[in-house]
Known about the structure:
533 residues, two-stranded parallel sheet, membrane, EmrB-like, transmembrane helix, transmembrane
Amino acid sequence: MSHAVTEAPDKPLVVLNQRTIWLIFGALMASMFLSSLDQTIVGTAMPTIVGELNGVEHQGWVITAYILAIAIAMPLYGKFGDLYGRRWPFLVAVALFVIASVGGGMAQSFESLVAWRAVQGLGGGGLMILSQAIIADIIPASDRGKYMGPMGALFGISAVAGPLLGGWLTDGPGWRWTFWINVPIGIAAWFIAYFALKLPSHRTTRPTDWGGILTMALGTTGIVLLTSWESLGNDGYDWSDPMLLGLLVGTAVVVGLFVFIENRVSEPLIPLRLFKNRTFTITTLIGLVLGMGMFSAMAMLPTFLQMSAGAGVTESGLLMLPMMAGVMLTSIVSGFAISKTGRYKMYPVVGLVITIAGMIWLTRLEGGMSLWLFGAMIFVLGAGMGLIMQTIVLAVQNSVDPRELGTATSSNNFFREIGAAVGTAAFTTVFTSRLSDNLEGVFGGLPEGAVPAGGSSGLTPAIVDQLPEPLRSGVVDAFADSLAPAFWYLVPLVAVGLVLALFLKEIKLSGEAGMVARGEAVMEGKETDILDR
C-alpha cells in the first residue's frame, strides 16, 4: 500500500527558527498538561464523588470512560492530522475538552458524569496525540530527546499534580471544581494555540476510512465492556449468559471486520503494514502492557491512602509527590542523554526492570503502613516509567516515513490506551470484587441500624473516619487487603514488556524534522535548501 501522501500546503512554507519552535512547544505543553491532568485529577476525589453519586461498585468507569474515549479518538486525530494538517484538529480537541468540563461540573448523576468524562476523552485524545506528532514535525529526532524529556516529565507532574489538586479542591470548594478548573485553563490554551500554532493545512481528495472508524470504535468499546463485565453489576462471568456471549462474539466479529477493511482500503485508519516495522511492533506491545499496569496503579493509590492509610483528601495528593519526582528525574535525564549520545535502547529495558521491582514492592501495601515507605515504593515506580514512556514514542517516530508521523504515533498510543482501558477495567474489577467480599464480611453480622447509610456503596473517607472501632479498622483492612494482592496481576504483564524491549533494534536518529522532510518547512538560514531538491 502507498504511504499517506499529503498535498502541497495551502500557505507559504513555515520557517522554523528557535523562537517559533519555543512558541509552538509552549502551546503544546500547556495543552498536554490539561489533557494528562484529567487522567488523574479525579483520583483523590473519586471516593467522595462515587459516594455522593452512589457509584462505588462502578467507580472504575469514571476513569475507564475517559481512557476509552481517548483510545477511540487517537487514530482519528493522527490520520486526519497527516491528511489535512494538525492545527484545526488541535483547536477542535481543546474546544471539546472545555465543553465536556462544563458538563462534568454540572453532572447530577453518576451516569451523566461518566458520559461527560467520555466527551472529555474525545478532546483529550487529540491534545495528547497531536502534541507528540507536532513535536516530531518541528524537531529532528536527533534533538527531540531534549524536548521529549520535559514532555515526559509533564506526564509525571500531572500524574501527581492531578491527585494533589483534586484533593485540595475536594476539601475546599468541592469535587465539581476538578472539572470547573479546566474551563479557564482550556480557554487560555485555545487562544495560545490559535496564535502560536502556525502550521500548514492541506487539501486532499483521499477517501475517509469510515468503515475502519466505525469498526475500530465498536471493537474498542466491546473489548472494554468485556473486561468491565463484573463492574457493570453482573455476577461474574457466566458464559451461559446470552448477553455476555453475544458481546464476546460481536466484539470478535467487529475486530475481524476491522482487520479485513484495513487490509483493503486505500487510506486505512491504522495501516496494518506498520506492524511489518519491527520497531513499531515491539514498542507498541511495550506500550500496551505498560498502559495496563501504569494507569491501573495510579488510579487506585489515592483511594488506598484515603481509605486505608488514614490520609486526608489533600494529603493523599501530596503523598503522590515521590512518584512525580521519580518520573521527572529519569525522563529529563534520559532525554538529554539520548540527544547527546543518540542511543536509546537501554532506557526502556532498565525502566521496565525498575517498574517491575516497584510493582512487586507495592504488593506489600497494608493499612497504617509508614508513609515514608509508601513514598519510596511509588518513587521507584515513577523512576521506571520515566525511562520508558517518551523513549518508545521517539523510537516509533524515528522508524517511520515522515508522511506518516501522526498515523504511526497515534496507532502506537492507541494500543497503549487500549491497554490502559482494559487494565484499569480489569484491575478495578479485581479490586472492587475483592472489596465487596471483604466489606460484606465486615458489615455482614451487624444489625441494620449499625450499617452506614447507603451501605458499602455509599462509603466515603469522611464516613469511614467516623466509624466506631473495631468497624473502622475492619473497613481499613478491607481496602488494603483488596488492593495490595491485585498488583501481582500486573507484574507478569510488565515482565512481557521487558522481554520485548530486549529485542528492540536501535536505529540511528534522524537529523531532519518531519515538516522539513515533507517539504512543508525550512530551517532558518536554510531557506534555499528546498530549491536544491
